[in-house]
Amino acid sequence: MSTILLRCAVSVISLCMMCKPLLAEEDATFWEGFRVGGYTSVDLHIPRTESTRLNWNELAMIVTWDKNTRIKFFGELDLENVASYTHRQGLDFRDVYINPERLYFDVNLTERANVRLGRFLTPLGRWNQLHASPLVWTASRPVATTELFPTFTSGIQFFGTLPLQERSLDYQIYTATMNAQPESRGETQYKDMRGARVAINNVFNFTNENAGLNTIGLNYATYREEQSFGPKYSILGIDFLLEFDRWELSGEAYTRKIDHGQGGGSGAYLQSAYLIKNDWYWITRLENLHQPNTPNAERWIIGVTKRLKPNQLLKFEIVGGNGEYEDIPRGFTTSFAMMY
């Protein structure tokens, strides 16, 4: 981990120094482009079969640089599993670790094409790219988005938006150029990640003023496990988001194959958020996960979420069904998440 962090630091310093001469011709002050922020969240879990646990999940620092030029920078460094408390163990800091979540440069090539260089969230589906606690409705994450593909990719990504009359097409094409990239602690390590996602926006061409986003995305990727002679996977997925009146509906579904066409697992979720009143939302989610040599998971979630401020969410939810995951236990959870 220390070697990776050292490489990241050296890369950022080197690339920033490369950017500075380019900005001179823009007659802009280099350091004025930096912005610092972040997010954090705290959960209280009351699981079915374990002790009640209070978790400080993460403390994230985000640094961006943008001077309205062709080059932009984004960096996120997370302190994960900051602290936990149970009646039996008391206050515990033993699981804390540093995760270099994102570290990349975006370069604008043309009006419809950009290139991203560095470590970024794997652009498979929607949730993985927007999974920060203050940006999602629930404290728990759909298991299909954590167990079937790598969360991060270190490499190069081409992305942009193409006009299609009343609609538009977003595209993301990416490939890993550095293997042995760190995942969150306990996650399977992958390498040789490459894939693409295309999403059509304004699919239904709504004209009603109460209608919002309506997007359908298609995803495909290949990768292999980091271990020696690890299996090679190919994954195909679809995702969607629909906003209309008081409703927001979203979902993702994936099927994964191993070499020679063998089944490598599948998973999906379907989620709804309904605006009740005064920024209170009723949340419902159904999800499943099927993997070789592990029990299947069929889960449901119901809850309410209050948007306290544009950057703060208070969440209450009950997780039921079958399948146990340490970071997403069945039972009751309440969570507070904020951006700063």
From TrEMBL:
Alphabetical UniProt keywords: Signal
Gene3D superfamilies in the cross-refs: Porin (2.40.160.10)
Protein name in the entry: Porin
Signal peptide: 1-24
InterPro entries assigned: Porin_dom_sf
Keyword Signal attached: yes
Superkingdom as given in the UniProt entry: Bacteria
Record lineage: Bacteria, Pseudomonadati, Pseudomonadota, Betaproteobacteria, Nitrosomonadales
